[in-house]
Amino acid sequence: MKNIGVLTSGGDSPGMNAAIRAVVRSALYYDMKVYGIKKGFEGLIHGEIVEMNISSVSDIIQRGGTMLRTARSEAFMTPTGFERAVDMLKNFEIEGLVIIGGDGSLAGGLKLAKEGFTIMGLPGTIDNDLAYTEFTIGFDTAVNTVLSAIGNIRDTSSSHERSTIIEVMGRNCGDIALYAGLAGGAEYILVPEFDVDINAICRKIIQGKNRGKLHSIIIKAEGVKMNCEELAALINQRTGLETKIVVLGYIQRGGSPTARDRLLSSQMGFRAVELFNANAGSRAVGIRGNHIVDFDLEEALALPKIWNHSLMELSDILS
Ligand code: F6P
Question: Where are the domains of the chain?
C-alpha cells in the first residue's frame, strides 16, 4: 500500500484530531504517502484532497472538532455522487482510506470497500453506538462534559429543592445517559432502549425526598420517545415538585479530548495503518477488554448493539 487517505465524517467528536494525527504520522513512519480529505465524503466528491506531512498535524492532539472538517453528505448517497467519489480516489491513486466516523460513515466506507478500495473504519462518534467496539472516540470526553454539567446543576437544584431533567445526546443509544448518569449519581436514567416508566420515576423522586434529598437529577437521552416538557409536567403533577429542564446539546460534541480519548485515537490510528501495511483487507478498529482489536468491516457493522443491563441495575441500586 503506497497511497492512503484519511477523512472524518458525520457528527464530529473529541479525539478525531488525535486520530488524524496518529494516522498521518504512522503512515509516514511506514513510508506511505498520506492525503487528508476535507469535509468527509462531500469533500471527496469535490476533490478537496491535500497531501499531509508531519507538520500538517502539529498542535492538534489537544483540540476538539476535526481539522479536516466534516459533513453529512447527501450527495454521496446518490449513484452520481458515489461514482464521483470513486473517481476522485482513482485520480489521486488512493488505494486505502481511513474513515473516522459513526455507523453511517463506516457503512459508506463499506460501499467503497466493495469497489475494491481498502477501508479502515475508526469509530468516531460521541454516541458509543457501534456494537463491535466497547468505546468510540469522543464518548469519554462527552460523558465528562455531561458530568461537569450534572455537578453544576446539582448545586442549584439542591438550593431550590427542585428536580431537574438533563437531556443528553445519543440519537438511538442511551450510553451517554447511562455512563454519565451512573458516574454522576443521577436519581433516574432514561434511555431510548426502554419505555418510560413514569411511576418508577416519581416513586424514586419521592423516596429520595423522604430520605432528606434536596434535589433529584433525571438524565434523559434525546432519543427517548417522551419529550422533556411532557416529562417535566408529569413529574410536577404527580410529585408536586418544581421540575426544570436543561438540554445540553452541542456542548457535548466539543472540547479538548480526555486522556482516554487521546490514547484511544492514537492507538486506533496506528493500528489502522499497521493493517494497511499488513494487507489485512478492510477492517473496523475498536477496543475490547482494554485491547485494540480489529474485525472484518462488514461483519463488524452487522453486529447488534448489546445493552449494558448490569450498569443500569447498578445505577438503580446506588441512586
Ligand atoms: O451522532 C452524534 C450526534 O451528536 C447525535 O448524538 C445527535 O443526535 C446528532 O449527532 C446530531 O447531529 P447534527 O450535528 O446533524 O445535528
Answer: 3-138+257-302, 141-253
